[in-house]
Amino acid sequence: MDEVLASVAETIKNFAVMYLVDITEVPDFNTMYELYDPSTIMFFFRNKHIMIDLGTGNNNKINWAMKDKQEFIDIVETVYRGARKGRGLVIAPKDYSTKYRY
Amino acid sequence: MATLADSFLADLEELSDNEADSLNEDNGDAEQMEEDVDGDLADIEALNYDDLDSVSKLQKTQRYNDIMQKVEDALEKGSDISNQSIVLEDDPEYQLIVDCNALSVDIENEIVIIHNFIRDKYRLKFPELESLVHHPIDYARVVKKIGNEMDLTLVDLEGLLPSAIIMVISVTASTTSGKPLPDEVLQKTIDACDRALTLDSAKKKVLDFVESRMGYIAPNVSAIVGTAVAAKLMGTAGGLSALARMPACNVQLLGAKRKTLAGFSTANSQIHVGYLEQTEIFQSTPPTLRKRACRLLAAKSTLAARIDSIKGDSTGKVGRSLRDEILKKIEKWQEPPPAKQPKPLPVPDSEPKKKRGGRRLRKTKERYALTDMRKLANRMAFGVPEESSLGDGLGEGYGMLGQAGSGKLRVSAGPSKLSAKVAKKFKEKQYGSSGATSGLTSSLAFTPVQGIELSNPQALANQLGSGTQSTYFSETGTFSKIKRT
């Protein structure tokens, strides 16, 4: 996931900025956002948390490692469009409910 | 009648008298012209020339001999560099160089005239040779070698021409329509060849002399293209001021006269390059950039020639700087293009969509527009159940369509533009299937006479319908005569 984020950062820098937070160093939000997984990605727009319907059941975050750069860029763009319109929940372009089933 | 014939004859005699008179007048004019131009130009009106001397007079002139003598002396003396203090125009050597330039042009013209002479004489013997060997000096050499020989296998042309052309010549000679020349004609031809060759060697001497003095006459041009090419350019142009007056496109073409023979490939013949092809800069550029380099060289050498003609820079500094400029430009052309930068994505929704308008867009939108029928079908009357396609509320609802009291007297389907396009495509396919209108029908027809036939003979009759009914007002009727063009 780290490589994907690093390579995508320059491409989406016009509308998204990435912050890396180490939850062992900053444990203040662990209970609030339920940050227990090895990697978690959450989206915020103007201090508001934006939810994404990924089909996994958990709309608040992406808590697995994505491998495809373009998929991730699509999700970020969808979040940006929806958030600018004022929506609190956006629907991801791809469904991840079958993430563990091939 | 006799008097009429006599009068005609008399007219004819008058005419011939007139010709003789005009010929004499022309003679006088031509001679005057010759005297004006130092007798170098050939006597053009002497078409009936058997004598070489009447054609080419250059070698007999005093001017020619003087200059050749001086050139030979100067070549033996070697170059002397000490004359820079004297003003250039007064320097006798400078004058000699100016004369040399004019002379080399004259020699070239003379060679062309002699070439014509040789060609006309040798045409009886070997007419195809002139189209095989274009260069006048090569032609003269070949003629001298072949002489009166009919069998070309006995003649050795090695070293005079490329072997491909020798082969073509031998093949053509075996099927030539020429006959051996009489002795005097042969002798005259050989003399003319000798004269052409001596003129050619004289021109070479002149050019060598000019080349040796080139760095002193035109230092800037020699700095760019080299002394040999500069001498050739100046010689062909007819002097430094003539070279300076030429536009650069002409300078590029000086010395370009390579004509490939018919049948030989033109892949290696470079178009529009002249003496500049022999310069070091041109030879060291990659072939793809040679055209551009030639243009650049011609332009800068023209500038240098202009500076030299007014003696603006006698040290050649400008020439060297121009040469550096040329080399730098050629270097720059060979640089690879800059590397591609990865571009970040634009902000989503920030760029408004480019909406187009106009008649074309309107027409395409019309095809998908909402028709009146659809509008009515979309609406419903209050309290009145609508009819549906499958009945009882199943299927597609018809809305206000077809309802009594709906306010619309008649709603016609109208020409649907979308379906019109589809129908057109369908019709084209339909014509190919010999009149079968539905996909389930076969185009085979079972007829009593032939059995199974591919095209239904009843199809045309069916299209017209029964003869009693009028087809003029029929909604399903088509054209009565369908002719496929």
TrEMBL record, chain A:
This protein's record includes keyword Calcium: no
Source organism per UniProt: Coffea arabica
CC terms in the record's Gene Ontology section: spliceosomal complex; U4/U6 x U5 tri-snRNP complex; U5 snRNP
One Gene Ontology biological process: mRNA splicing, via spliceosome
UniProt protein name: Thioredoxin-like protein YLS8 isoform X5
Recorded family membership: Belongs to the DIM1 family.
Keyword line: mRNA processing, mRNA splicing, Nucleus
Subcellular location: Nucleus
Highest taxon in the source lineage: Eukaryota
From TrEMBL, chain B:
PROSITE patterns, A to Z: NOP (PS51358)
SMART domains attached to this UniProt entry: NOSIC
Domain (Nop) ranges: 217-335
Keywords assigned by UniProt, alphabetized: mRNA processing, mRNA splicing, Nucleus, Ribonucleoprotein, RNA-binding, Spliceosome
Pfam families named in the record: Nop, Prp31_C
Record keyword Ribonucleoprotein present: yes
GO molecular function, one term: RNA binding
Compartments, as annotated in UniProt: Nucleus
Region called Disordered, residue ranges: 13-36, 330-363
Main localization (coarse): nucleus
PANTHER family tied to this protein: PRE-MRNA SPLICING FACTOR PRP31, U4_U6 SMALL NUCLEAR RIBONUCLEOPROTEIN PRP31
Record family assignment: Belongs to the PRP31 family.
Protein name listed in UniProt: U4/U6 small nuclear ribonucleoprotein Prp31 homolog
Gene name linked to the record: LOC113717072
